[in-house]
Amino acid sequence: MAISIRDVASRAQVAVGTVSNFLNRPDRVAVATRKKIEAAIADLNFVPNASARHLRSGSSRTIGLLVPDITNPFFTEVARGAGDTASENDYTLLLCNSDEDPKKEERHLKVLIEQRICGLLITPSFEGLAGVAELNRRNIPTTFIDRKAESLDQSSVSMDDFHGGKSAIEYLASLGHTSIAWVNGPNSLAQCVNREAGVMNSAKEKNIIISKFQVSQMRSQNGYEVAQKILESNSQITAIFCANDLMALGVLRALLENGKTIPEDYALIGYDDIGFSASASIPLTSIAQPAYKLGALAAQMIINEVEHGKNFKHEQIVFKPELVIRASTQALRK
Pfam families this protein is in (predicted)? Predict the structure, then answer.
């Protein structure tokens, strides 16, 4: 039979309300009484019912984290940073994965509301913004990760993806490449839209021909399949820029399987600088993002907002990604 709060009160010889205060508002309980209750809990191996406390209070110390693709090591690092910060502050992180599917994202948001999360960290799709608005209506604070908030009443920690896309094309142009394949993800993701804007801006400035290839999901197999199309196109493409490293690694595998050499036949750049990039068979040039830092900082921001309420000042923090040059790129051979 489960041990109840009444059993603890009886063992400690205090009122049930006193035990309830100890569990929820320990500062209201005298030190001597706290010690009696702690001893009773230890003797009975009592485990507090967190769900019941959440029902009474209407909230919890649980933070939701909703990411578009947990198989992507970039978001794994984001989750690790957020989780470490949450744990250090005595919060629990509840992780959800949308698989870049707006409908699944909507379902997760409903479940997180039902779980009475105290705050949400999210990399939202354009369609997911309506769900975020619903959380805000319910006074559940949200912080965007890897996407800049458009409202000053919304906190975010993001990257300047326009700059990232632009800098990759500028670098390839400096190596002499004038025909570049751009492999991008779905337009439902702001990151993809902004990276492409940077790509096209730089291409116009540098007089570069861009061949666009778009995929529904940004995974290695998608990159592999796009590479086959590039090879079949018989175009003058000499460089390939992918919107994330997973796709770039898929492209790399396909090119090598087809007897191509990197970077002699094709220069290749990815985005995110995940851990696998440096240790690939041909180390991958990439646009680096501080994934762990993004997650950790976003978690601290949401905790601060939860704990300070109306006194919290929202921020929109933007980092500039950095080009990390490795063996997958070189100057075009004349």
Answer: LacI (PF00356), Peripla_BP_3 (PF13377)
Which parts of the chain register pLDDT below 50?
Answer: 55-58
pLDDT at 126: 79
Query: What's the mean pLDDT when you consider all of the chain?
Result: 91
Peptide bond preceding 68 in cis form (omega within 30 of 0): no
Return the domain boundaries, the chain.
5-48, 57-159+291-319, 161-289
**pTM over the 0.90 mark:** no
Cβ-Cβ contacts under 8 Å for 123 (sequence gap 6 or more): 66, 67, 68, 75, 78, 144, 145, 146, 147
CATH number of 161-289: 3.40.50.2300
Query: Which of the four CATH numbers 3.40.50.12780, 1.10.260.40, 1.10.340.30, 1.10.8.50 does domain 5-48 have?
Result: 1.10.260.40
The whole-number pLDDT of residue 55 equals 47
**Residues 272, 279: Cα–Cα separation, whole Å:** 14
3 state SS of 43: helix
Hey, what long-range contacts does 112-115 have (CB within 8 A, 24 or more apart)? 112/64, 112/66, 113/138, 113/140, 115/60, 115/62, 115/64
Report residue 157 as tokens.
């920690």
